[in-house]
Design brief:
6 helices
């Protein structure tokens, strides 16, 4: 076991460290939430990460995205995140896919079934539904981030199934659209905090959401019976 995971092993044991090293996670989106999902997974010791994002860093991203700096403006987010992960753990097998992931979009060769977990951290409803549909078709667990903008209280986040969400406008839309498609029981992270503004964000809220998602993924992957929890980890 590598020395950098010595303290991690005190919590999950060497077998847990080995288990995470053998896992592969597919992450969509490297914004305020997704960049911290990747950060948390990489530092936990996930052995293989595929990152999907077509966007480049804009100055307006600097207030909340871990890869957004004045020195990285204009650079591809997926590649920046992949390079950062390689610096965290050179042994991590990381792949950056600079692409939009939408139904009917550019052809993709992403084999969802080859991953142990899928994380949806994108903003577009159409893309979120497509990711969830593909994950369900491949029988791979998926967790989807609901709205994290316009919030000021990072402690208001909860992880549960989509049917149990409330307050969050994005979750309301997703509940309706997933119900139309007969998709139930999707694990999501959402907030019950009332929106503070329109189009606003702050440093410490999306980051909390991203790390909560990373923690949920890690705990599920470490589950001794191989099952994935259904959520209800309020503020965890």
């Amino acid at each position: 076991m590598k020395q950098q995971y010595e303290r991690t092993s005190r919590i999950i044991g060497e077998e847990g460290v080995d288990r995470l090293h053998d896992c592969s996670v597919l992450v969509f989106g490297t914004g305020g939430v997704g960049s911290y999902v990747c950060e948390g997974l990489a530092r936990a010791g996930i052995g293989s990460l595929t990152i999907v994002d077509k966007d480049v860093v804009d100055e307006t991203n600097i207030n909340r995205q871990i890869i957004a700096l004045h020195s990285t403006i204009g650079q591809p987010k997926a590649k920046l995140m992949a390079d950062r992960i390689q610096d965290i753990d050179p042994d991590c097998q990381v792949t950056a896919r600079e692409m939009f992931f939408l139904p009917g979009g550019q052809p993709d060769d992403l084999d969802f079934a080859s991953y142990d977990y899928v994380v949806d951290a994108v903003d577009t409803v159409t893309a979120k539904i497509y990711i969830i549909e593909r994950a369900r078709l491949a029988c791979v667990p998926v967790i989807s981030a609901m709205g994290t903008g316009n919030k000021l209280d990072g402690s208001a986040f909860k992880i549960t199934t989509i049917e149990k969400t409330k307050v969050c406008p994005l979750a309301k839309v997703m509940r309706r659209e997933l119900k139309k498609r007969g998709i139930t029981g999707v694990k999501v992270l959402y907030s019950e905090e009332e929106p503070k503004s329109v189009g606003g964000s702050i440093s410490f809220v999306p980051s909390v959401a991203g790390l909560l998602i990373a923690g949920e993924v890690v705990r599920d992957l470490l589950s001794t019976d191989g099952t994935v929890s259904t959520g209800d980890t309020e503020g965890r």
